[in-house]
Automatic annotation (TrEMBL):
Highest taxon of source: Eukaryota
PANTHER family attached to this UniProt entry: ESTERASE C25G4.2-LIKE, OVARIAN CANCER GENE-2 PROTEIN-RELATED
Biased composition, class Basic and acidic residues, residue ranges: 224-240
Region annotation Disordered: where it falls in the sequence: 224-248
Species per Swiss-Prot/TrEMBL record: Hevea brasiliensis
Record's protein name: Serine hydrolase domain-containing protein
Record-annotated Serine hydrolase domain positions: 7-199
Pfam families for this protein: FSH1
């Protein structure tokens, strides 16, 4: 049975530190558009205006934004709770979303949100997030966060882009271990959204296609269930009609 109205899956895409949603959209445009043609992407800006110099000044026009602030060791965070509340409200108001995509700071934040949702800490009324695209992500280092977000293996479909010259290569490897059966796509570049070669494009396309097919099977089952429930309602209506006496 085919779906009457095939529905695209929706992904919330979160940009890196002191950049913007528009810049991430431009970065993702490097990828073959056919990979995610059955997905809708949403590229919001961070909650806070950039509080310092951006690495993309002179490359991409402002304004620039950040999601939260942190110390040099990435062990202390400012405005993180406010950021989490803002994103949960955004996801609830503009969703439902099927998954998250994040670069650098936002990848770290996205993994946190997925882990928190699984543990029942946030997004309790939102459908479970099903997928995660991580580009140069890391784990948080505060033990109080780690004990919740990474308490159990995170069982969502995930793909992790890890650069050979990325200064966050090892932390990105560590983040991938928090997920169940992650797909890891390696590239020779640094801390960036990479261009994909033919092999990487094929891997990402296969990953996305599998997710779409799985989601379509779920939707088909729901559609069949709805049809069966409607059929069960019809005999009741007929019986009620038969009980009506037509005056002569």
């Amino acid at each position: 049975m085919g779906l009457q109205n095939e529905k695209k899956m929706k992904i919330l895409c979160l940009h890196g530190f002191r950049t913007s949603g528009s810049f991430l959209k431009k970065q993702i445009s490097k990828w073959d558009p056919s990979i995610f043609h059955q997905f809708d992407f949403d590229f919001p800006d961070g909650i806070f205006p950039a509080k310092g110099k951006s690495d993309i000044e002179g490359i991409f026009p402002p304004p620039y934004f950040e999601w939260f602030q942190y110390n040099e060791d990435f062990t202390e965070y400012t405005n993180l709770e406010e950021c989490i509340s803002y994103l949960c409200e955004y996801i609830t108001s503009n969703g439902p979303f099927d998954g998250l995509l994040g670069f650098s700071q936002a990848s770290t934040l996205s993994a946190l949100l997925i882990g928190y949702q699984i543990q029942g800490k946030v997004l309790k009324e939102h459908p479970p997030l099903k997928l995660f695209v991580s580009i140069s992500g890391t784990k948080f280092r505060d033990p109080r966060i780690c004990e919740v977000a990474y308490k159990d293996t995170i069982k969502v479909k995930s793909v992790h882009f890890i650069g050979a010259k990325d200064w966050l290569r090892l932390p990105s490897e560590e983040l991938a271990t928090a997920f169940d059966n992650p797909l890891i796509i390696r590239h020779p570049h640094g801390h960036t959204v990479p261009r994909l070669d033919e092999e990487s494009t094929g891997k990402l396309r296969a990953w996305a296609t599998e997710i779409i097919q799985c989601n379509n099977r779920i939707l088909e089952k729901e559609e069949i269930k709805e049809d069966e429930e409607k059929k069960q309602e019809r005999p009741d209506k007929i019986d009620n009609q038969e009980q009506i006496t037509i005056p002569v």
